[in-house]
């Protein structure tokens, strides 16, 4: 056997051995899992996506808002911290005729997170909506102060801190039926008073509630609502009888007119609002709204969940002028029977898409005709930065 024959035989043996080992090690490759990409859902507006594996669409939205407020109407007062210098270490309260308070900023930072879902069913569109707020605020600390054995009612004043997380909206809708946490239909059905920030200075209460409501929508812009509500805090229902709201509205290209009534089951009193909106031109719109309650005596101030103004009646008038796509001017005047008055005006400017800057001026007149009235004129201002997404 020569060298050439030996090499050829060795190569053949190695090839056979390799083939045998390869045959023993054959493993079937696993099939790759199919990848389901997130699909755009355009049936309910911009920003919706399909939840993978379902026909339900979802959307996440919200805003970040920074408010800077000043003045007697919107600012804060705070204890001069030097008055208490060393108190924490010694435990001895300060001496002197009185404590000093300074005017200061009122600042607030809010993050509002919203979720939306929607899908079609044989009974109509099934929707959900939530809004949760996380907030850093300048609250008013009401801790009583001891000074020379005299308990003071005033606290430290401005006290910057985190607020509690709040669930402002969380409801389910099926067709015209709505169930869950909302704001009362007495406010939402006709719309909030105006496009100013401080639209409720003389009607501050009556917002949050759980409810079961049904909105009927007919042709030609006609709609109607009935809402059974629980109220909140002092205005929470005290029996199985709910607060009740009913309303009707007609909306067209020129504007809308509507009326809504609310019955407070605790006090067995009611309130009514009527409103008209007019689109004068494409740029200019006006609204006028009036309210009346069944018991407006000042001894019953803010007893009625649906009427936190003073006296029998209240009125609002306001408008918006759209200078261009980025800039609008908004103004509102409100006045009630107790001669309370609030005037607010602002300019809302969209600096870049999604970022709006709004400076607003506010004038408020209180009267002594209602409990704790101060019969004084106060001014204030607020600068708001809001990034919506």
Automatic annotation (TrEMBL):
Record's keyword annotation contains Cytoplasm: no
Matches recorded under Pfam families: Porin_2 (PF02530)
Compartmental location: Cell outer membrane
Record's bilayer topology term: Multi-pass membrane protein
InterPro entries registered for this protein in UniProt: Porin_alphabac (IPR003684)
Keyword Repeat in record: no
Biological processes, Gene Ontology terms: monoatomic ion transport
GO molecular function: porin activity
Keywords: Cell outer membrane, Ion transport, Membrane, Porin, Signal, Transmembrane, Transmembrane beta strand, Transport
Gene Ontology CC terms, in alphabetical order: cell outer membrane; pore complex
Signal peptide: 1-22
Similarity-based family: Belongs to the alphaproteobacteria porin family.
Primary role: Forms passive diffusion pores that allow small molecular weight hydrophilic materials across the outer membrane.
Record note on domains: Consists of 16-stranded beta-barrel sheets, with large surface-exposed loops, that form a transmembrane pore at the center of each barrel. The pore is partially ocluded by a peptide loop that folds into the pore lumen.
Protein name as catalogued: Porin
Organism: Phyllobacterium leguminum
Lineage: Bacteria, Pseudomonadati, Pseudomonadota, Alphaproteobacteria, Hyphomicrobiales
